[in-house]
Design a protein that fits this description.
The protein is of the alpha+beta class and 585 residues long. The chain folds into five domains: 136 residues, Endonuclease/exonuclease/phosphatase (Deoxyribonuclease I, Chain A), CATH 3.60.10.10; 54 residues, no CATH class; 78 residues; 146 residues, no CATH class; 89 residues, no CATH class. The protein has 20 helices and 15 strands. Strands 1-2-3-7-6 form a five-stranded mixed β-sheet, covered by helices on one side. Strands 4-5 form a two-stranded antiparallel sheet. Strand 1 and strand 2 form a beta hairpin.
């Protein structure tokens, strides 16, 4: 056995040879020596990287399940169990999966840093009947890169801890903004990019005013204040170090002192209390991670990844010549080339071939598509507040917490975009993040591109013509194609065709409950359905009903029709009909 500790790498490298006829107990003695070396190198603030390699002559271990196979000699069975226990005790992973001599895997590499190994190569060797084992690390351990703190602009969303923002004050400030006047300032803005930037800067300014800063200097995230438990743990560790120093001094100067045993007892009690406190903290974090898996899955997965054996990161990637590239810019170029090959070029697309098989005369016109600020607010509500956000974009947390006050400017932005048929250029940019799937980490084909898109364009993608879909769903309930769990009744009359009614509500109920009832799906669906003429609501074929419904909705104007975007009816079929009746009176 050979042990070598490399201080510059903070790594313990051990080479072990176990003869096939090793006597019982000798292998355990070797492992105990390595364990003792590890214990001496491990402290509260330092844990070395471990690399243990050599010819162990233990072919009867299933490394997929990490279990000893039956049917081998007792001494080998005992050695296998001792090695597996040693690995579990030190959180080691065996990296060699292919045979290294004949059909047996007996040359092993054990490490507690499997994420640093990006590739293992096994090749024939002319000097031995064993094969040559080679590990490729993702970094140079002899020349580690210095840790550089994350730097960001202090006048950015990243500089604020918006999760602890005063959202009530933010909503008040956003509500006081005259968005129509700001929109008119961008009269030369053809694609809406200037107004989009104005929205972002306005929200950013209000966020900076109502959110605590992560770092007052803007050079990096500030160090969070330690919790009571963390401070208690550091206090006990500091006390333990002082007691150990006293024990060491007494042992040298007065080894027969009775105070030594008393101090050792105090150290043991402190060690037990520190252990209990650490276990308590881990249990609390685990309970928090499990309890928030639905509301905040990112926290759960970030917690789980701390215990993962292999981290998902971009390792050094091979280029077309098979050369490993470690420079981030070179890796980005290789991934860019890989992703370009799997996407089609829209400029070279055959439009005629793409249109083959499609109806040249669609039954529905896109001009019937309308949306309101309320639709924008409902679409924002569907966003995940913890979703990833591109750098510089408005975070999802702010959008969801201020959705009612921020819906108006987004509505003005997308209304202008829809009327002019131009999407803001900033909304066409996507940030691509490579995520490792499986297989060889050095192959660019094994990294899946994940795009991080602006939440503002996602909002527009979620906008639906909700009233139209409510009417279609009501038709399906009437014809038995959807469950009628709200007990809606349909009655036919010669004058109005088919009318819908819902069970009556107790008028003595509280106002808040009555308001929820009036805004419920059943009441709104019945009111919308009863606006349809009998020529539409009596149609029994779904496709014909959809076409007739689209023609009927064309008769309702798309508001607001004038510059300034001040709408009385908000594009709502119910409100438009009500306003029309009031005008006629």
């Amino acid at each position: 056995m050979l042990n070598c500790f490399i201080d510059s790498m903070n790594a313990l490298v051990s080479v072990i040879y176990r003869p096939p006829d090793a006597p019982p107990g000798s292998f355990k003695a070797v492992l105990d020596q390595v364990q003792e070396k590890l214990n001496n190198l491990t402290s509260n603030d330092r844990s070395p990287d471990i690399y243990i390699m050599g010819d162990f002559n233990l072919p009867n271990i299933d490394w997929d399940s990490c279990q000893a196979l039956p049917g081998q000699p007792l001494c080998d069975q005992q050695a296998c169990s001792e090695l597996i226990d040693f690995m579990e005790r030190n959180f080691l992973t065996q990296m060699i999966c292919n045979p290294t001599r004949n059909n047996n895997t007996i040359d092993l590499v054990l490490t507690n840093k499997p994420q640093d190994t990006i590739e293992t190569n096994i090749s024939e060797c002319q000097l031995s009947d064993h094969r040559l084992v080679e590990l490729v690390l993702g970094h140079n351990p002899l020349c580690p890169k210095e840790h550089t703190p994350i730097s960001f602009d202090r006048n950015s969303f990243r500089a604020t801890d918006f999760h602890r923002a005063d959202f009530e004050a933010m909503n008040d400030r956003l509500e006081a903004v005259n968005w129509i006047s700001l929109r008119e300032l961008c009269y030369e803005d053809e694609d809406g990019s200037a107004f989009l930037e104005l929205i972002r800067l306005t929200v950013l300014q209000i966020t900076l005013l109502n959110s605590p800063s992560k770092d007052p200097t803007g050079t990096g995230p500030s160090r969070p204040r330690r919790s009571l438990q963390v401070r208690e743990k550091y206090t006990m560790k500091r006390k333990r170090r002082k007691l150990n120093a006293q024990i060491s001094a007494l042992t040298q100067n007065n080894p027969t002192s009775r105070k030594i045993e008393k101090l050792k007892t105090e150290v043991n009690l402190l060690t037990f209390e520190i252990s209990e406190l650490v276990i308590k903290q881990l249990n609390e974090k685990e309970v928090k991670a499990v309890s928030t898996i639905k509301t905040n899955p990112r926290f759960f997965y970030s917690y789980a990844k701390r215990f993962a054996k292999v981290k998902s990161s971009v390792a050094p990637i091979r280029d077309t010549n098979g050369t490993l590239k470690m420079d981030p810019a070179e890796k980005a170029e290789i991934l860019q080339t890989q992703y370009v090959t799997v996407f089609s070029n829209p400029n070279s697309a055959n439009v005629e071939e793409c249109l083959t098989g499609l109806d040249p005369h669609p039954k529905e016109d896109l001009n019937t598509f309308t949306f309101t600020a309320d639709d924008i607010s409902d679409a924002i509500k569907e966003l995940d507040p913890y979703a990833s956000t591109p750098d510089g974009d408005i975070p999802a947390k702010i959008l969801t917490k201020c959705r009612r006050t921020i819906a108006e400017p987004i509505y003005l932005l997308w209304k202008h975009s829809f009327d002019n048929g131009i999407i803001p250029s900033g909304m066409k940019t996507q940030y691509i993040t490579p995520v490792f799937k499986k297989g060889d980490r050095t192959s660019a084909a094994n990294y899946r591109p994940v795009s991080i898109t602006s939440h503002i364009i996602k909002i527009f993608e979620r906008v639906r013509r909700r009233e139209r879909y409510i009417i279609i769903h009501t038709w399906k309930m009437m014809n038995g194609l959807a469950p009628n769990d709200i007990n809606m009744q349909f009655k036919e009359s010669s004058r109005h065709g088919i009318k819908a009614t819902v069970p009556a509500f107790n008028k003595k109920a509280q106002c808040s409950i009555s308001t929820h009832y009036e805004n419920s799906f059943g009441v709104k669906a019945a009111k919308l359905w009863n606006l349809l003429p009998k020529e539409v609501n009596k149609i029994q074929i779904l496709e014909i009903f959809k076409s007739s419904l689209a023609k009927f909705l064309k008769g309702f104007p798309d508001t607001p029709p004038t510059k300034g975007y001040t709408a009385i009816t908000n594009n709502s079929l119910l409100e438009w009909t009500l306003q029309k009746d009031l005008t006629q009176e």
